[in-house]
Amino acid sequence: MRVHVVPIGNSKGIRIPKPLLELCQIKKEVDLVVRDKSLVIYPVRSHPRAEWAEAFRTMHERGEDRLLVDERVDLDLGSWEW
């Protein structure tokens, strides 16, 4: 999709169409990154953990919320030999 670069004071700007803003979940702020001479725009998540509850629920439904270390393992290292 092509858009025009427009003057904004001493800077330049673009208008991002509403469907793209919604698709990328862009609200009020974005992070701009230059990568290989390209400008990449990322949405800013105002609450970094906002979507964790849903992610944990999905993990539980898929059975992906199991312990990674067997609970019988002595994690205090008391019985370990070095």
Summarize the structure.
The chain is 21% helix and 22% strand. The chain has helices at 18-23, 52-62; strands at residues 6-8, 11-13, 30-35, 38-43.
Helix/strand layout:
Blueprint: E1 6-8, E2 11-13, H1 18-23, E3 30-35, E4 38-43, H2 52-62
Antiparallel strand pairs: 1-2, 3-4
Question: If you had to describe this structure to a student in words, what would you say it looks like?
Answer:
Helix content is 21%, strand content 22%. Strands 1-2 form a two-stranded antiparallel ribbon. With 82 residues, it is of the alpha+beta class. The longest helix has 11 residues. It is built from 2 helices and 4 strands, in the order E-E-H-E-E-H. It is elongated, with a radius of gyration of 23 Å. It has a domain of 57 residues: Pemi-like Protein 1, Chain: D (Ribbon), CATH 2.10.260. The mean pLDDT is 88.
Features:
Pemi-like Protein 1, Chain: D, alpha+beta, two-stranded antiparallel sheet, two-stranded antiparallel ribbon, 82 residues, 21% helix, 4 strands, single chain, 2 helices
Taking all Cα atoms into account, the compactness measure Rg is 23 Å
Q: Can you write the helix and strand succession as a string?
A: EEHEEH
Enumerate the spans where pLDDT stays under 50 for 5 or more consecutive residues.
Answer: none
Report the sheet with the most strands, covering strand number, pairing sense and barrel closure.
Answer: 2 strands, antiparallel
CATH architecture of the domain at 6-62: Ribbon
Characterize the overall form. elongated
Helix content, binned percent: 10-25%
Share of β-strand residues: 15-25%
Q: What name does the CATH topology of the domain at 6-62 carry? A: Pemi-like Protein 1, Chain: D
Q: What is the count of β-strands?
A: 4
How far the N terminus sits from the C terminus, by CA atoms, comes to: 62 Å
Helix tally equals: 2
